[in-house]
Design a protein that fits this description.
With about 400 residues, this protein is α/β, with parallel strands linked by helices. The chain has 14 helices and 16 strands. The protein has three domains: about 220 residues, Isopropylmalate Dehydrogenase; about 120 residues; about 35 residues, no CATH class. It is globular. It binds NADP nicotinamide-adenine-dinucleotide phosphate (NAP) and magnesium ion (MG).
């Protein structure tokens, strides 16, 4: 068999623990036998990040900017315990945070739908994609305790002119909080959402609470509207894709009643909460794809879960593990499809589609990893628990 050719390399970011083991299995069993894989490899495993003083993470992000498409394995974000475990020079920052800061992106999370794994809301037949704004609001706020007295908010412009408003006159104990966002970040978020909705041809809802937060949330609404009208409206009409702004409470009601098939752009806190709700309702983090899209159209595909440490420690002891590789497989297929589309390589894109179908059909035929067995319910099909490697080999048979 002739292997499928690639022209531009993918930026490949290797990672840690169980997902690093899965990474190699996927490449060896599901990709390199069929594709003449071209990648520019960056080892973001914690040991190598430490050896390079985390320069490898920055290099990988810059390479992503250069080539446009990356695939990333889950990585450890070090804490005190990891500093000891890996004898680190420093408690390096989260690689995802570093990459996100360089690419200035928005994260889109989408469930992988399989027959037999029914969402808790059975009418959700199609994916609900959450786009979470990842900057500011309460995540970069200052807050404090207050007692009897006055809390004020002062803005000082560059000429030193001050504008002070009273937040509250306290006659007893209380709390205050001040938060911010920037037009620049909101604009990037809006563009990433519009680009993504066009790409997947799904309607886009953006929600906020501008009836209450007239200036703050009003700003978000206004920026989305302006960018949409000036830069995207014509293309949305051409592609038959809708954009709607609505209040967050109305959005929640619409989403619950919908049958899915929508991109839901959320402010930072709403996205934090709603993405956990949607992931749980669809079944599992291991069945969730995640892609970072930058405003200038750079894509980084990954799994939504972490390095599955508990399974890795079992693996190190020589025990059989049944870790779910689906989200990592879909990170690869997402990246290969994108590369195929950008480079006009239809057989590469077709292969990626085929691999996705093979993965889904393998589960639907009753062969799956342990995490899914308890949730699987398809009349006439008995769920069988396989090890990670057995499961990946079953998928290969279906390609
Ligand atoms: P995790 O790796 O997502 O795992 C948490 C638990 O969820 C696992 O113990 C397992 O449950 C279940 N799980 C997650 N993915 C699974 C899969 N593919 N197959 C089967 N079960 C799966 O989160 P964590 O344990 O909190 O974090 C571990 C490390 O990952 C940390 O060092 C953290 O910094 C890192 N992390 C990285 C990323 C990223 O790179 N994107 C994201 C999150 C966390 P059971 O144990 O019950 O089987
Ligand atoms: Mg959360």
């Amino acid at each position: 068999m002739q292997k499928i050719k690639m022209t531009t390399p993918l930026v490949e970011m290797d990672g840690d623990e169980m997902t690093r083991i899965i990474w190699k299995l996927i490449k060896d069993i599901l990709i390199t036998p069929y594709v003449d894989l071209k990648t520019e490899y960056y080892d973001l495993g914690l040991k190598h990040r430490d050896e390079t003083d985390d320069k490898v993470t920055v290099d990988a992000a810059n390479a992503t900017k250069k080539y446009g498409v990356a695939v990333k394995c889950a990585t450890i974000t070090p804490n005190y315990q990891r500093v000891e475990e890996y004898d680190l020079k420093e408690m390096w920052k989260s690689p995802n945070g570093t990459i996100r800061a360089i690419l200035d992106g928005t994260v889109f999370r989408s469930p992988i739908i399989v027959k037999g794994i029914t969402p808790y809301i059975p009418t959700w037949e199609k994916p609900i994609v959450i786009a979470r704004h990842a900057y500011g609001d309460i995540y970069k706020a200052v807050d404090g305790l207050a007692g009897e007295g006055k809390a004020e908010l002062t803005y000082t412009d560059t000429d030193g002119k001050k504008n002070t408003v009273t937040v509250f006159d306290f006659d007893g104990d209380g709390v205050v909080l001040a938060m911010h966002n920037t037009d620049k970040s909101i604009k990037s978020f809006a563009k990433a959402c519009f680009n993504y909705a066009l790409e997947v041809k799904m309607p886009l809802i953006f929600s906020a609470k501008d009836t209450i937060s007239k200036k703050y949330d009003g700003k978000f609404k206004e920026i989305f509207e302006k960018i949409f009208n000036e830069e995207y409206k014509a293309e949305f009409e051409k592609e038959g894709v809708d954009y709607t702004y609505t209040l967050i409470d109305d959005a929640v009601a619409r989403i619950i009643r919908s049958n899915g098939g929508v991109v839901w752009a959320c402010k930072n806190y709403d996205g934090d909460v709603m993405s956990d709700m949607v992931a749980t309702a669809f079944g599992s983090l291991a069945m969730m794809t995640s892609v970072l899209v930058s405003p200038d159209g750079v894509y980084e595909f990954e799994a939504a879960h972490g390095t599955v440490t508990r399974h890795y420690y079992k693996y190190l002891k020589g025990e059989e593990t049944s870790t779910n590789p689906v989200a990592t497989i879909f990170a690869w297929t997402g990246a290969l499809k994108k590369r195929g589309a950008l480079d006009g390589l239809s057989d590469l894109a077709d292969f990626a589609e085929r691999l996705e179908r093979a993965t889904i059909e393998t589960i639907e035929s009753g062969k799956m990893t342990g995490d899914l067995v308890g949730m699987f319910n398809l009349p006439g099909v008995k769920a069988e628990k396989l090890t990670t490697e057995e499961f990946i080999k079953e998928i290969a048979k279906k390609i």
